[in-house]
Design a protein that fits this description.
Layout lengths: L1 E10 L6 H18 L3 E6 L6 E10 L2 H18 L4 E11 L2
Antiparallel strand pairs: 1-3, 1-4, 2-3
Amino acid sequence: MNIGICKIRFHLPEKHSLKDKRRVVKSITSRVRSKYNVSIAEVEDQDLWQVLTLGISYVSNHSDHAHEVLSKVVDFIRSTKPEAEMIDYEIEIVPAL
């Protein structure tokens, strides 16, 4: 069993309140959950309205498959949310016992 972990950081230059940011978070998380079988949540910077950090996890029998799914999620978010400028992302695959 392998656990894929992805952390994505965004800059939200046009958001001027936490309420605006929450709309973006809710939109991204609901779209990703409906399209992919992953866990996704805001994991850092909850009090900063122009910075968004999402954590995504996926469990698979094969590390290549976990990496592929997380890469597709990153591409999906990038293509569907142009107002959220992706600063960077990292994908890590952790073998579980």
